[in-house]
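Putative NBD/HSP70 family sugar kinase: structure, please.
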Amino acid sequence: MNAREQGTPRGSVRQLNLAEVVRLLHFEGSLSRAALTEHTGLNRSTIADLIAQLGTWELVTEREPDIARGVGRPSPIVSLSPETVAITVNPEVDALTIAAIGIDRAIIVRDRVQHDTVPTPAETAALIAKKVSGWRAGPLALSRIIGIGLAVPGLVRASDGLVRDAPHLGWRDVPLAEVVAAATELPVSVGNDATLGALAEHLFGAASGIDHAIYLNGGASGIGGGLIIGGMPVAGAGGYAGEFGQNRPGIAHDHDRRAPGGVLEDEVSRARLLEVLQLTDADEPTLATALTEATGAVVAGEVTRQRGILTTALANAVNVLNPSVIVLGGFLATLAGVDLEGLTAAVRQQAMPASGEHLQIRAASLAENRLLIGAAELAFAPLLEDPSRAS
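Here you go.
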């Protein structure tokens, strides 16, 4: 028995061992049988038995290593089957982004569906169902869809996924999981977009291996955030922690204020960037390119104004939470990228010296897929807890 399982009730040890193997392959990638034996502390025959069981559920595949090294028979390489997938969705005021992501973390297919008016929850569910149906006949014809994860820009109750308030979408107290499940006949999980972005960047991105991190997401609906404290995501009592965009910004000069009495996301705003760029809509790469190529004084002035307000907001967060890393996603990453070293230095200057001395600010390395990858983790969580769900 694995030492970590001592004291576990009989009958659940096998489930825990199966789950440990699947989680290792999910978070670490393909591993040899020998590496799985080393990581788990289980013996070789137990690992062989677990892999055989996972194989009958079509969760793993095996292959011989590309190059045999050393003496003796090479250890087969075990991988999660790319045919086990989650549908991930990020509904926004200007578009709905939807993807199919494999449990091996490969993005199989991705689409962004723009809309002129914000869809209702029922219309959103119908759109998801239509897209999934089409994919089943195409790129997902051989796939097993394990569930759907939604990353929603608003307050989502942690206990049941109820969308308490997504103000920019106009959704309030919406049982979104139930609505989408009824339309798709698939298990559905719902979470806050920024919280899921923080999870994704912590597991696989710019905050990987970081125990104390702040993530801020800049999207069409405003600014949200997520917290990693002591290596663990922190959601708060109801699941609403990290709403940095609702804080009152510190603005030194009145002429820099655009929304009297407004909150941070009213001042540091994607919509205001689009306005000065004379764009009606843009996905993240398009916006980043437009800002990089812009040469006018109006655009430069707006970027400088927003960076200054963002600097104070980040310094306040550093003073309260003392992170070692701040990760910025969406248009906030674009703002930071204008001069990342300069932004970092400005935040350190405004923060308490002891709190800011080792601070790093990084762009989200998962880029425009960060929220979708986080939503996939939400959908895969039950399977990672109990792989027998695939049987």
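Notes: The domain at 84-196+370-390 is CATH 3.30.420.40 (Nucleotidyltransferase; domain 5).
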